[in-house]
Amino acid sequence: MRILRAADHKRMPWKNGGGETVEIAVSPEEAGLAGFDWRVSMATVAADGPFSIFPGIDRTLAILDGNGMELDIEGGTPVLLTTASDPLAFPADIPVTAKLEDGAITDLNVMTHRDGITHRLVRIELAGGKALPLTSPTCLLLCHRSTLSFRHGDETGALAAGDALLIENQAQSALEIDGEAECYLVSIATR
User: InterPro entries annotated for this entry (predicted)?
Assistant: First the structure.
């Protein structure tokens, strides 16, 4: 288990040069945009435009802040994502265009290599204590708003807004969390 502090997240340009992303975690560590197995990041989208294309990658997107963004995913009906929407999964290797509803948004982006890795992203509104089942070999808990405390076995700690907890090789266990916070749980597994 490892705490990834918000101040240590890596900032880098988007693949298409249209903005900046904040990389929370990537595997393998130090992998570039073309060589990752999985990647969790946040980005601020300040203008309408196309998403970067990532061949062979599946993506899930959630809106963290802002008034929303409409995604026009090739072959589908446009979808409006807001902070109240469930995370949206779609292929990262087909054309997608974003149109902002009213001003900039910040999103959470999870990407995995389709040839062997799957992921799931869920939003959790925490009001008190909760046990989160860890069903995948790799899980990442991002604290988005406020703070929370956690316990896993004998290990305890706290996360502030923007911090994440990376948990590896702990499938079939549970993470106990407590607080008043909004957070996101990413579960990553091999096929």
Answer: RmlC-like_jellyroll, RmlC_Cupin_sf, Uncharacterised_HutD/Ves
Average pLDDT, the chain: 93
Tens digits of residue pLDDT in 144-167: 999 999 999 899 999 999 999 999
Model confidence at 16, pLDDT cuts 50, 70, 90, reads low
Buried b or exposed e, range 59-90, using 16+ CB within 10 angstroms: bbbbbbebebbebebeeeeeeebebeeebbeb
pTM higher than 0.90 for the full model?
A: yes
The Cβ of residue 127 has, within 10 Å, a number of other Cβ atoms equal to 9
Integer CA distances (angstroms), 26 to 109, 114, 118, 151, 181, in order: 12, 15, 14, 23, 24
Place of tokens 């040069």: 17
